UniProtKB/TrEMBL annotation:
Purpose of the protein: Catalyzes the complex heterocyclic radical-mediated conversion of 6-carboxy-5,6,7,8-tetrahydropterin (CPH4) to 7-carboxy-7-deazaguanine (CDG), a step common to the biosynthetic pathways of all 7-deazapurine-containing compounds.
UniProt keyword GTP-binding present: no
Summary of subunit composition and partner proteins: Homodimer.
Designated name of the protein: 7-carboxy-7-deazaguanine synthase
Residue numbers binding S-adenosyl-L-methionine: W56, C57, D58, G113
Stretches that traverse the bilayer: none
Pfam families found in the cross-reference section: Radical_SAM
UniProt xrefs under HAMAP family: QueE
Amino acid sequence: MKKELTKYGFVQEIFSSFQGEGASLSGSCYGLRQIFIRLAGCPLALGVCGTKGCVWCDSPKAQTLEPKFILVEKEAGGQEFYKIENPISVAQLVAIVDNLRTSDLHSVSLTGGEPLLQIDFAAELVNELKKKGYLLYLETAYTEDLLGLKRISNKIDYACVDIKDRSAQSAKDWKKLAEQELKMCKILQKSGVKVFAKVVISNKSTEEDFHYISSMCGKYQIPLVIQPVTPKKGLELKSPTWNKIKSFTEIAGEYLPPENIGLSVQVHKLINIL
Ligand code: SF4
């Protein structure tokens, strides 16, 4: 008998676009066509680490835990949306993904918010998408539930783990948060996922923090991407200078081989697409 898909979850938006982050490192899907499922809710924004999330958050709408509606792209890449009500079932969501599938689709990106926050829903979603042959890309920043991550990690093909430095202000104790994020990298790597780490840097990022992050990535052999913060209205942090960017990539070079160090800019923001 066919098993019923029972899980419902909260999603903020679903659309087709191109992965705009990640440079050309192992684990990155930079420049490849993806369907983005932006799951709702972010534990960091909810204050689990003592702050209200990253000061430069580029998807603040996805911080809401249970949004009333989901924005669904009408046609793949059309950037026009209709609304449906949350919560959504896994079966409904997979049908939407099927509908947005294009001949050049590389993978489905599970992003957020934080896609691991609704772990039971994510686990069933990952299973169903895998059964249909989709490659899966996970964009994650934090979960307390490492067992939950282990449950789904063997179904994920690519992953980007955001590691926050002190300037992101994502936690009162930034190093404790970074340690957890590095553990997540290890779990994904052990499961055979092509994983890389991404650090958003700003004019306030310090060499001390970056030495720590780079040394840990070097120790675990996790490729590391540096991404200058994208300026936005009201954000006090500024993009780092060119001198700062290259001094940081050179710090990374003290711990990692050159092929595992990259510079990423948010290309989708530059060309004004989703
Ligand atoms: S982890 Fe992601 S969604 Fe949460 S506050 Fe930071 S950037 Fe925003």
